[in-house]
């Protein structure tokens, strides 16, 4: 076999840097440039890429090891390499990296498998608590799995030495998945030999170790999921967060590609601790005192009903957006008399097509045109706090009232679609939302949101910006109003609009221009052709 070694390259002179993640496992085929391990200093984490391609035959480091330039990381069998000679490979002097302990006799080796975890499938590995060569006692935690509700430690079913690990952080496991191989002390568990198909372990089902906060990959009906999706953090950061009780889903990472660092956790916790020490009220978030708990049953009969998951996520998102975004709301009425005449003229055609044409697709088209005309509205604030992200696409979310709560699916490339196509998409996505079938991807990537309460009524409201978007349009019920045309009052069908925006990204003058453009397009949809 032509075995090649991969070592730590020049890492800017840093010494004794901790291995926080091993991104490959024995048997994986890596291409040159693929990330193989992640190292973390106290300032940054760095991915070490493979400098050659081939099949991983040995991993020479464990999580927690300290490495420097030249430390041996992996051995790979070069792609397509023949096995020229059986001569023993020269063993690399493993510098700072410990070499895995030789495997004990096969007869004493057993597969470590995931036991009954209550039927959960494809559960993510968020932490590997042991290294190859570790001695474990029965019941010691091997790995930590996390569903969207709880994290659970998987215990060793017997005492012994870890011979190999077959999983890495991020893998998805189910009952029976092989975690690794254990050389048992005393040859216990003879029923689970290494070579056998993984047997269902008899160990008791692990108890959820700790509740975790907001589900990381669950649909976020109001907020952009891009920011609330999978938490990108290594085990050391996760451990610190757990110790401090921090929900990593609420933090923005400042490491490479948004990776969360220990410093991000510390910077999040520091002001809270400082506020507590200074005597400022804490407990309700952002130093705001909590609303006192009240026993309502003292005042009459009550019934307490659990909130749906969607409602809870919406509540979190609303609080977060309300507290983080300095809102301004402006109101205006758009004259939809001509738009309604046009829409009514299309009703028969809509019926023939089997669809219903409401004012909403017109508002989507007009908003898309306004986002293009006033691009200050088609931005997001970068989480580095120093830049603005300008979007070259026009995706618009629509708030949909569903039996489970408020959902905001996103219609893509609204500027490029016609009224019928938008009508069909609104109907399909609103149905999907009401049937509870929206996927996280359906709710991601919005640039702007329309919340239409026109069918429900009202003169106006203050919609909450759906961050990281910077503006939202609230639509209330249209009604005939007397409008002065310079000579006389004439009856016009007026649509009340409420435009809320993030004053960090948008100034009043920008908003004035956006609103003027929007209402002009709505008043005369022929402008969409200009
Ligand atoms: N003024 C007067 N009538 C209006 C109107 C308005 N602004 N907007 C819609 N209507 C009319 C429609 O024309 C339709 O009438 P017809 O049946 O006579 O044609 C009727 O109201 C019902 O419309 P709809 O609600 O079925 O369709 P839509 O395209 O207007 O809205 C959707 C679709 C999915 C946005 C809507 O069903 C919905 O869920 N709205 C709630 C959004 C929400 O809850 N926002 C609040 C978020 S903050 O809590």
Q: Would you mind describing this structure in some detail?
A:
The protein has 530 residues and is of the alpha+beta class. It has four domains: 3-78, RNA polymerase II/Efflux pump adaptor protein, barrel-sandwich hybrid domain (OB fold (Dihydrolipoamide Acetyltransferase, E2P), Beta Barrel); 108-186 and 210-223, RNA polymerase II/Efflux pump adaptor protein, barrel-sandwich hybrid domain (OB fold (Dihydrolipoamide Acetyltransferase, E2P)); 229-278, Irregular (Dihydrolipoamide Transferase); 312-529, 2-Layer Sandwich (Chloramphenicol Acetyltransferase), CATH 3.30.559. The protein has nine helices and 28 strands. Strands 18, 21, 24, 25, 26, 27 and 28 form a seven-stranded mixed β-sheet that branches. It has a five-stranded antiparallel β-sheet with strand order 15-10-12-13-17, with no helix packed on it. Helix 7 crosses helix 8 (419-434) and helix 7 (360-373) crosses helix 9 (508-523). The protein is elongated, with a radius of gyration of 29 Å. The N and C termini lie far apart (68 Å). Mean pLDDT is 82; it is low at 81-107 and 187-229. The structure holds oxidized coenzyme A. Oxidized coenzyme A (CAO) binds at residues 356, 358-360, 398-401, 406, 426, 430, 451-455, 475, 477-478, 495.
């Amino acid at each position: 076999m032509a075995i090649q070694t991969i070592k730590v390259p020049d890492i800017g002179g840093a010494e004794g840097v901790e291995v926080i993640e091993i991104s490959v496992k024995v048997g994986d085929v890596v291409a040159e440039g693929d990330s193989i391990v992640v190292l973390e200093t106290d300032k940054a984490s760095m991915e070490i890429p493979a400098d050659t391609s081939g099949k991983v035959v040995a991993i020479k480091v464990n999580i927690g090891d300290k490495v420097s330039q030249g430390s041996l990381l992996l051995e790979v069998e070069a792609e397509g390499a023949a096995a020229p000679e059986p001569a023993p490979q020269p063993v690399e002097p493993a510098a700072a990296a410990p070499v895995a302990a030789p495997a004990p006799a096969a007869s004493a080796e057993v597969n470590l498998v995931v036991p009954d975890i209550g039927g959960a499938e494809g559960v993510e590995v968020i932490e590997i608590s042991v290294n190859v060569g570790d001695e474990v006692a029965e019941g010691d935690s091997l790995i930590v799995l996390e569903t969207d509700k709880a994290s659970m430690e998987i215990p060793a079913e017997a005492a012994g030495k870890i011979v190999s690990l077959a999983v890495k952080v991020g893998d998805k496991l189910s009952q029976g998945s092989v975690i690794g191989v254990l050389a048992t002390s005393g040859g216990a568990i003879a029923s689970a030999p290494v070579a056998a198909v993984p047997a269902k372990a008899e160990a008791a089902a692990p108890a959820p170790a700790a509740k975790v906060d907001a589900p990381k990959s669950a649909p976020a009906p109001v907020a952009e999921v891009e920011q609330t999706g999978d938490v990108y953090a290594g085990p050391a950061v996760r451990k610190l967060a757990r110790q401090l009780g921090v929900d990593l889903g609420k933090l923005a990472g400042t490491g490479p590609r948004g990776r969360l660092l220990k410093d991000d956790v510390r910077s999040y916790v520091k002001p809270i601790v400082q506020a507590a020490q200074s005597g400022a009220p804490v407990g309700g978030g952002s130093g705001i005192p909590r609303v006192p708990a009240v026993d309502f049953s003292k005042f009459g009969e009550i019934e307490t009903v659990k909130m749906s998951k969607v409602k809870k996520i919406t509540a979190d998102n609303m609080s977060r957006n309300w507290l983080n975004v300095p809102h301004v709301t402006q109101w205006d009425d758009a004259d939809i008399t001509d738009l309604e005449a046009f829409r009514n003229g299309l009703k028969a055609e809509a019926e023939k097509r089997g669809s219903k044409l409401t004012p909403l697709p017109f508002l989507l088209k007009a908003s898309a045109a306004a986002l293009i005309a006033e691009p200050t509205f088609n931005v997001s604030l970068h989480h580095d706090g120093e830049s603005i992200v300008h979007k070259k696409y026009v995706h618009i979310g629509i708030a949909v009232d569903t039996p489970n709560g408020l959902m905001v699916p996103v219609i893509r490339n609204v500027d490029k679609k016609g009224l019928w196509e938008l009508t069909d998409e609104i109907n399909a996505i609103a149905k999907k939302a009401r049937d509870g079938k929206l996927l996280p991807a359906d709710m991601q990537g919005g640039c702007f949101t329309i919340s239409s309460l026109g069918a429900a009524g009202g003169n106006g409201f203050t919609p909450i910006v759906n961050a990281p978007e910077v503006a939202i349009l609230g639509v209330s019920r249209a009604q005939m109003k007397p409008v002065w045309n310079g000579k006389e009052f004439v009856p016009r069908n007026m649509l009340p609009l409420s435009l809320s925006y993030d004053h960090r990204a948008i100034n009043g003058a920008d908003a004035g221009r956006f609103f003027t453009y929007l209402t002009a397009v709505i008043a005369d949809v022929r402008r969409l052709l200009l």
